[in-house]
């Protein structure tokens, strides 16, 4: 196995920003009481890579029997963005992430694939001084399976030379769908979701480099 291309999820992989988004979702539903807030938190953590648009549609239908219009979904997403954007930009890096990205971007090709809206993740990457290291930064409304296939075809990538770094089931599912290598970034939020996972994993980028460094050279 020789790795030449890496797809990065963002929240929980490059930045420790999962908690920031959890708190923003909880804040938006706080007026409906603790039971709803608890279910919102639980669903968000169990569906980490699902876009906020899909989550709002699901919650409004399940909790209140409401079918949102496109405009209503966009309004909710805009409110969420205002709550969370600064927190994500300022979130600490996953240990070793920036050094890893700067080091290996000289010899490997990098893309970000995330559930965050594309225009927002572009702004976040720019403000975190990451843009120059990535060929592209891609998010919702397209899902991760769409982006893995799109990028493979656009750049004629060899699937066996491509690695997806993720912390959510949607990341693993996209890697499986596109027949890519996958490495799981382990954290407290996803421990229960990947209890039976036996593949490559890492807690930080120092561990990732230790485990897979020979495949990046």
Kindly describe this structure.
- The chain is an alpha/beta fold.
- It folds into two domains: about 5-15 and about 90-215, HAD superfamily/HAD-like (Rossmann fold), CATH 3.40.50.1000; about 20-90, DNA polymerase, domain 1 (Orthogonal Bundle).
- About 50% of the residues lie in helices and about 15% in strands.
- It has helices at about 20-30, 35-45, 50-65, 70-90, 95-105, 120-125, 145-155, 170-175, 205-210; strands spanning about 5-10, 110-115, 135-140, 160-165, 180-185, 200.
- A six-stranded parallel β-sheet has the order 3-2-1-4-5-6, with helices on both faces.
- Helix 6 (about 120-125) links the parallel strand 2 (about 110-115) and strand 3 (about 135-140).
- The model has no long low-confidence stretch (mean pLDDT about 95).
């Amino acid at each position: 196995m020789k790795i030449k291309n890496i797809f990065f999820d963002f929240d929980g992989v490059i930045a420790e920003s999962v908690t920031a988004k959890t708190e923003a979702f909880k804040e938006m539903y706080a007026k409906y009481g603790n039971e709803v807030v608890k279910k919102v938190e639980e669903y968000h953590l169990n569906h980490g890579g699902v876009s906020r648009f899909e989550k709002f549609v699901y919650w409004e239908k399940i909790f209140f029997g409401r079918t949102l219009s496109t405009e209503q979904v966009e309004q909710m997403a805009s409110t969420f963005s205002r709550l969370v954007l600064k927190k994500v930009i300022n979130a600490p890096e996953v240990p070793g992430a920036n050094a890893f990205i700067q080091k290996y971007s000289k010899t490997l090709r990098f893309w970000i694939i995330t559930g965050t809206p594309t225009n927002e993740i572009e702004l976040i990457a720019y403000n975190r001084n990451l843009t120059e290291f990535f060929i592209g930064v891609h998010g919702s409304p397209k899902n991760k399976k769409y982006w893995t296939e799109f990028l493979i075809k656009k750049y004629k990538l060899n699937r066996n030379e491509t690695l997806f770094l993720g912390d959510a089931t949607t990341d693993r599912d996209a890697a499986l769908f596109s027949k890519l290598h996958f490495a799981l970034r382990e954290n407290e939020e996803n421990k229960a979701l990947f209890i039976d996972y036996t593949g490559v994993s890492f807690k930080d980028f120092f561990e990732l480099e230790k485990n897979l460094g020979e495949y990046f050279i």
